[in-house]
Amino acid sequence: MKPRTRLVPGPDGVRAEGDKEARLGHVLSGDPLAGEQPPEGIFAAWEWDGERLLARTDRYGMHPLYYRSDAGSLTLSPDPLALLRPGERADLDHDALAVFIRLGFFLAEDTPFTAIRALPPAATLTWTRDGVRLDAPALPVSGPADLTRDEAVDGFVELFRAAVTRRLPTQPYVLPLSGGRDSRHILLELCRQGAPPRECVSGAKFPPDPGADIRVAADLAGRLGLPHRTVDRPRSQFHAERAAGPAQGMGTLDGAWTLPLLAFLRRHGGLWYDGLGGGELAQNPSIELIRKNPYDSADLPALADRLLVAGRTGAHVEHLLGPRTHALWSRERARARLVRELARHADAPLPLGSFFFWNRTRRSIALAPFALGGEHTVVHTPYLDHALVDHLASVPRRFLIDGTFHDQALHKAFPEHAGLGFAAAVPQRHGFVLFGHRLAYLARLLGHTLHAERDWWRSRDRVLQRLLAAGRGPGAPQRVSRLQPLALYLLQLESLAAGGTR
User: Fold this and answer.
1) Which of 78, 57, 70, 74 is nearest to 120 (CA)?
2) What is the pLDDT of residue 502?
């Protein structure tokens, strides 16, 4: 059960329910509720002293914390579903959902529910009988620094080393290792500083992933003389996503494959390192999309339309929308909401890189380590070191747009490993394996509906019937592959909004 507090004023004073104090995540030093500036670390914290509640979030708002303020009361929790009252119907935020169903993540402080909001980055929330006050600075979006390429790369190398030095382990630990750049850089730097893990572990992913992550990670661990282990993926993607969605507060369609990996890490010490932010800041995984869609502040609606089409479900989502949801979650509504968020990043050297960091990284990717990872763990995120983020966020666009900036830093810092490729270069597997996997997902979804959730078949917007219809015609396999997780999400969300349990 995630911590939760509810404060209700009455004639005899304030009734405090739940946890009067919570300190979630971790800080490198000090008290997260003291001082004016957020300390280093990823955290969310609150404290009720009988007169005033004080709550704060980390500099980037990466650790989830949500609040609900209505009828004079305040409810606070890292789990937004804990703010829903049993049996109460919850109004949905249609602007937020219009974006989510296309991109797969929420923007800024949006959630699926109108009454529930995420606390912003570096926020301070105070509540007394007189009401609630929320203070949060504007996003620290700065212009490009006056740097040469060498200065930008050298700054990355040196500031990353300093970030890891500030986060050296105090106990034996296991390191999650992928075939990508972020965890590789963490591992190599920890080894350079004399603090190698006792073993490396990789998690298997769902098809169409080709398994290259595991092969590349095992190769790197072997070069360093470190044991390497693979944790199997969940046996059923459907059942994993059915659990992971509510466990992450219905904030993302991702994260289900990490469940066995995170369980393994919790069992083996509760301290690990996560490359959160490294991709979006140093070598954006969406760099091809960014190159093809230049940021033009004079025509943000056109950019928003292109991003919505290129999103997780893109144009496929229209197959799941009925007459009611087609109006409530229209492309026009999504475009208007997305334009407002895109405008906040106009001054960044790479505006779309900034947009993805503050939205996809913060509101979706961060949920796996900090919502699924467990309350009694320490997850170090060296790429979110304050000085390093400030540096990477100011690197001029011309050094980032070719998509090799992190490669250059890695090869400069560790030239002896420059010949080892990355898993992203290996194409995904399609064909009969993927077809069988998706068919099994659909069979489990229908079987669960028949035996446990019969109301899903009678959903207001006939989601299952529309999903089955999407399986006909040209392009059906790719379309259904994109839509199955969203269909499950919409069915669960409808149950929650109607006052059901997760």
Assistant:
1) 57
2) 67
H/E stretch holding 102: helix 94-103
Neighbours of 390 (CB within 10 A): 14
Q: Where are the alpha helices (DSSP H) in 180-330?
A: 181-192, 212-223, 237-247, 259-267, 278-282, 287-292, 300-310, 323-328
Least confident of 112-126, 228-242, 470-484: 470-484
Quote the pTM value. 0.96
Q: Which residues contact 120 (CB under 8 A, 6 or more apart)?
A: 57, 61, 108, 109, 134, 136
CATH superfamily of 149-285+345-425: HUPs (3.40.50.620)
pLDDT tens column, 20-29 = 999 999 999 9
Q: Is cis: bond before 208, omega within 30 of 0?
A: yes
Coil, strand or helix: which one is 135?
Answer: strand
Task: Please say whether the dihedral angle defined by the alpha carbons of residues 27, 28, 33 and 35, taken in this order, is positive or negative.
Answer: negative
> Distances in Å between the alpha carbon of 132 and those of 54, 71, 126, 193, 233?
10, 11, 6, 46, 44
What the block records as the tokens of 31 is 């008290």
Q: Residue 284: which of 218, 177, 357, 207 has the closest Cα?
A: 357
Distance, CA of 428 to CA of 431 (rounded, Å): 10
